[in-house]
Design brief:
By secondary structure, the protein is mainly alpha-helical. It has one domain. It is built from 7 helices and no strands. Helix 1 packs across helix 7, helix 4 packs across helix 5 and helix 6 packs antiparallel against helix 7. The two termini are 26 Å apart. The relative contact order is 0.15.
């Protein structure tokens, strides 16, 4: 599945330069072979880093394993596609060969497209869960700190009117506020990067699956 994810991402979003160099050898041929099929426009997101790609590979590997249905389906189809790539480099020919092989085990065109749709729906559900988790994390990690800043600002104004002893507390509050602001900036950047990278990878997966469904409908008889 990791090769499948890398190709899906390479087709629909931009990788960083180092990642693109690594992916070009394995992905360029497959991308060129699919020029007869209309590809969705790539979203204008920042490139995905190697670390993000590895993380999303592991995540979607686990998601597809959990979603895997009994018998041959879309998941087994693409695992077999990857296995035969070195022997049958042309993708359309490989799709027909793999389908013919799995057809003996009971796979049908209808079942292949239906299970591909189920995996796409699993990705979309995972996306919804991710966005909900992002919202919760934003509220727990940022809102509390913002409330703390507001409270400390009020306290600091009050302490300015007190004796010299309280001046030290004002300075400590100011230092704490600066620290919290740095934490907020770092946390917001972390959440934004995770959301941006995940959504890009997720959209790429959905686009790849939908593109595959189009190919199945056009190629497989």
């Amino acid at each position: 599945m990791s090769t499948f994810l890398r190709k899906a991402i390479g087709l629909f979003i931009e990788l960083d330069e180092a990642q693109a160099d690594q992916a070009s050898a394995s992905g360029a041929r497959s991308a060129a072979e699919q020029t007869t099929v209309k590809q969705p426009a790539a979203p204008a997101n920042q490139p995905i880093s190697q670390a993000e790609l590895s993380k999303f590979e592991k995540h979607f590997d686990q998601l597809f394993e959990q979603t895997n249905l009994p018998g041959p389906d879309y998941f087994e189809f693409w695992k077999t596609m990857e296995t035969l790539e070195a022997h049958i480099p042309e993708e359309k020919a490989r799709i027909k060969a793999v389908f013919a092989s799995l057809k003996i085990q009971g796979l049908t065109k209808v079942n292949l497209i239906d299970t591909a749709t189920k995996y796409r729906d699993a990705v979309l559900l995972d996306k919804a869960n991710f966005e909900s988790a992002v919202q919760s994390k934003s509220e727990s990690e940022i809102s509390g700190r913002e409330a703390s800043i507001q409270k400390m600002e009020t306290e600091r104004e009050d302490k300015r009117q007190t004796i010299e002893k309280l001046q030290r507390e004002i300075e400590e509050s100011a230092a704490k506020i600066a620290s919290l602001q740095q934490e907020i900036a770092a946390e917001r950047e972390k959440i934004d990067n995770a959301q941006r990278g995940y959504l890009a990878a997720c959209n790429a997966m959905v686009s790849k699956i939908e593109n595959d469904i189009q190919q199945f409908q056009q190629i497989i008889e």
